[in-house]
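User: My instructor asked us to take a sequence, write out its structure as tokens, and then describe one feature of it. I'm not sure where to start. Here is the sequence I was given:
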Amino acid sequence: MSLQDFAIWLSEARLSIALTDSATAFPAIESLHVIAITLVVGSIAVVDLRLLGFASKRRNASELITAVLPITWIAFGVAAATGALLFVANPISYSANFYFLSKLGLLAVAGLNMVLFHIFAHRHLDTHGALAPKVSGGASLILWVTIVAFGRMIGFTL
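Assistant: Let's start with the prediction itself. The structure tokens for your sequence are:
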């Protein structure tokens, strides 16, 4: 089954029709999605800027990550759930949208960057001048800004 076939099938589902027919559901879900994304990107940016040496210099990077990570994961869960509902509301248009598909790809790359950070760079957090955490933080910041920009472009191109 292709993505387009799946989108057509999904567009005929009760939930998709209910979301499409509701005057308030889509805007409410979208608002919650934006709030969740703001928390995700904001919390990640705090850590990335710390890794790059631009913010929170007085705080140990490991402690900062430990404090921020639960907020990030909860907000990411809400963003993923609301994002899925936004997709369900209009699957045919989303599945053919360049910015949507690119955003999904960038999310996968950001996830890979996070996995690589925790495998390789995390152990060098407290090593003065370590390059791996800075590279990971810089890549993360660029990826998340691009994800937000592409997410915003979805609304202009549907």
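For the description part of your assignment, you could build on this observation: DSSP finds seven helices and no strands in the chain. Try explaining in your own words what that tells you about the chain.
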